[in-house]
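Final report, section 2: Outcomes. Of the targets proposed, Acyl-CoA dehydrogenase/oxidase C-terminal domain-containing protein is the one most frequently requested by collaborating groups, and we therefore present its record in full.
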Amino acid sequence: MFDERWPEEAEELARALDAVLDKHCPPDLLRGADDAGAAHDDRVRRLDSALAEFGLWDLPNQPYLLTRAAVALGAHLAPVPFVSAVPAQVVLDTAGLANGIDRAVVPAGLARVLVAVGDDGLGVVATPDNPRRSAGGERVVVIEPVTEPPTPVDGHVDAVRAWGFLLEAARLVGAAQALIRYGVPYVSDRRQFGVPVGSFQGVSHPLAEAATSVQSADLLVRHAAYLGDADGAVPLFAAVMAAAKARAASRHAAATVHQALGGYGVTVEADCQLYSRRIRAWTAAMPDPGPWLADLARTLADPATRDQVTDLWQFDRGFTLPRWARESR
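The predicted structure is given below as tokens.
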């Protein structure tokens, strides 16, 4: 049976990262992104400096640590290109490359973009100079169509895909969990007819369903991180499953929390819209996991190929100690 708990090393990292983000990435910094000026840009630079000093970009290439960091960054909606840059950093050992595999939009701020060449090759192109604001308020760059011949690099495209899906799923899980934590206290305190509105089944049941769905996505993210840590490579099928569930669950959470908050939930003064706008922008920018899920289904449905997919279930193999348990004393 797999051990899909976050190891203490990852949780310690998350607590320390949360402390930095609490100080340098408050909601008013995110709200100011829509009217970015010199003051806002200076605050973003301070955030970047604080995260660099923290060592975010120097984390070892360990799935648990990188994935747990992505969850924390998503919970704070931190405007840093960590999720986009890490796949190339892990697979190619190259920093500063945005993940443009199967994507038309990447975060602004990275000088080069990693793109697919042919069926399974990789190449690098310069980031176009056309930044704009996404629907979520973040600065992004449109990279399609690629107008220059990519410079080929060694590496397998599916390895980059797996890391991209996993980290985007982790970021969505973090944002959705934070959004639910934002909504639940409101419905517990807001009273109508002499009782908290959260006591009404029409409010509490949808929130519980959304929270359960996000928890399922969280478990799939941990499953993929566990397999990556135990076997040395993140399986594409596990990352795709996590991405598909996180995509649906985060959108479900955004819609449900908005509905629970009523008119307050759609005002720009409320923090709720900061999360829901970014969740919708992130899920729109990421590739649709559907084609890879269909490939997985066809592989599993064919008796001649189903054995190619291992570790789909928790009990597919005996209990394997993860690295953090093997190295602990």
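The chain has a mean pLDDT of 89.
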